[in-house]
Amino acid sequence: MERKVRVRFAPSPTGPLHIGGVRTALYNYFFAKQHGGDMILRIEDTDQTRFVPGAEDYIIEALTWLGIKFDEGVHIGGNYGPYRQSDRKPMYKQYADQLIETGWAYYAFDKAEDLDKIRKEYESQKKNFQYDCNTRKDMQNSLTLSAEEVKRRIDSGEPYVVRFKFPADTEIVVHDLIRGDVHMNSNLLDDKVLFKSDGMPTYHLANIIDDHTMEVSHVIRGEEWLPSAPLHVMLYKAFGWEDTMPQFAHLPLLLKPDGNGKLSKRDGDRLGFPVFPLEWHDPKSGEISSGYREKGYYPEAVVNILAFLGWNPGVEQEIFSMDELIKLFSLERISKSGAKFDVEKAKWFNHKYLQTKTTQEIAAQFMPILQQKGIDAPAQLVEKAVELTKERASFVSDLWEQTAFFFVAPTEYDPAVIKKRWKEDVPTHLKKVIEIIENTPFEKQKLHDAVIEEYITANQLNMGQIMNCFRLCLVGAAKGPDLFEIVMLLGKDETLARLRRGIETIKL
Ligand code: GLU
Predict the structure, then answer these.
(1) What's the burial of 109, exposed, middle or buried (CB within 10 Å: 0-12/13-18/19+)?
(2) Distance in angstroms (rounded) separating the CA atoms of residues 227 and 490
(3) Residue 81 included in any domain
(4) What tens digit of pLDDT does each residue of 452-506 get?
(5) Is residue 36 part of a domain?
(6) pLDDT (tens digit per residue) in 251-295
(7) Longest CA–CA separation in the chain, Å
């Protein structure tokens, strides 16, 4: 029988979720939903020293904002709970014991300071110390100490760790759905700590036990976990769970825009764009890092941006809804090499999504920005202004720059336009334009014909010069939508007032 697809997103609550992590969650989600499978949210908090308050809530809020719906998880429960590793603590020890009994693991009593000393000695000989199949025989562990001594130490409460015992010189193969077979010789691997005497498992042990007991079928995660995969494969073997071992897929790294290294949490806002989905207020330092949501990105756009960082559907279309991505996604089309973040492309996606919103929706989002600027404009005017300018905006906040002149008359005029266009005869022409507007029915087409056809063209005047100076008076610059649309929206009195003020104020 075909196995039910069950995937998990398993972040550690050590801070805000990085967009690379969000991409991992998304790819898991696409894959699960495409196969009618389950998506699990598991919190991996075995390393209590790195725990950051608020991080778990942040992760849930961010994924909810993006529209990722979980079937099971720390926030909604499910049949395979608990979904937070600290709440699963009592179940891990038996598995560590099992590995010791079967000879796949051993107790180690080496103190941190002794290990440090050895490390330094190695370094002084320009060597790297690794606790492994070659060095373990010289250390303080249950392979070198007698059974009685081991028992005595444990009974007397001496701290210990349980380490995995890699067999010597063994070829380990990780079958990766993206990279193919990845080979590793066990001599290169260190005997990782799996469990500590305080009863806490490490990431490696907890992760494997949880994936097994939660019946996870596919592990889709970042490439930074590939070096741990040989240990994970060996753990499945050691437990005798090889038959149900999940299939692995390690996703390519998200790189900085210049391709120089991994895009990291520490990049914060340094590169001019957020690396977090939501704004993050660091509880310790008080530092605020920006988020896509607060920057004005639409969640659909962020989904689309991240979907394309490391994957593409092989067609020209680039705008896809979540449902379309779920249908199209495939692990085969994930690239092996890192994906460079491209901020201009990210803005382009948001631009495209903004264009799909109704004018009313955008206007409603724009209203608070206008209010902040002290502008109390009627909804109708705001909507019309939005309609005329939205195609030039990538974010709702861009609309201020595009529409301000509808709400406040210009107080300054672009000197470059004055220099280029404002010639001696311009005031005379603009006065004539005033006269035409006063005497023409206030309708767009009629005004257009009266100014352009009957005045400028009929008299063979300089169209660019007159129209740009007309615009300069209304807008203050050589920008904005169709001039007669602006005229209609400003209304007759305001248009005439601005023309008069321009003629008075602008000097050659
Ligand atoms: N807790 C790990 C992380 O923070 C999960 C790695 C995995 O998916 O196995 O990324």
Answers:
(1) buried
(2) 64
(3) no
(4) 999 999 999 999 999 999 999 999 999 999 999 999 999 999 999 999 999 999 9
(5) yes
(6) 999 999 998 999 988 886 888 899 999 999 999 999 999 999 999
(7) 111
Residues contacting 316, CB < 8 A, separation 6+? none
CB-count burial class (<10 Å; 0-12, 13-18, 19+) for 387: middle
- For 443, residues 6+ apart whose C-beta sits below 8 A from its C-beta are none
Residue 22: exposure state from Cβ atoms within 10 A (0-12, 13-18, ≥19)? buried
8 within ligand 1 shell (Cβ under 6 A)? no
pLDDT at residue 1 greater than cutoff 70: no
pTM above 0.90, yes or no: yes
Residues 394, 427 within the same domain: no
| Tens digits of residue pLDDT in 107-148 | 999 999 999 999 999 999 999 999 999 999 999 999 999 999
Q: Which atom of ligand 1 is nearest to the CA of 14?
A: 4
| Co-location of 231 and 275 in the same domain | no
The preferred substitution site among 225, 251, 254 for testing ligand 1, maximizing ligand atoms within 8 Å of CB, is: 225
**Strand 161-164 vs strand 105-108: parallel, antiparallel, or unpaired?**
antiparallel
CATH number at residue 401: 1.10.8
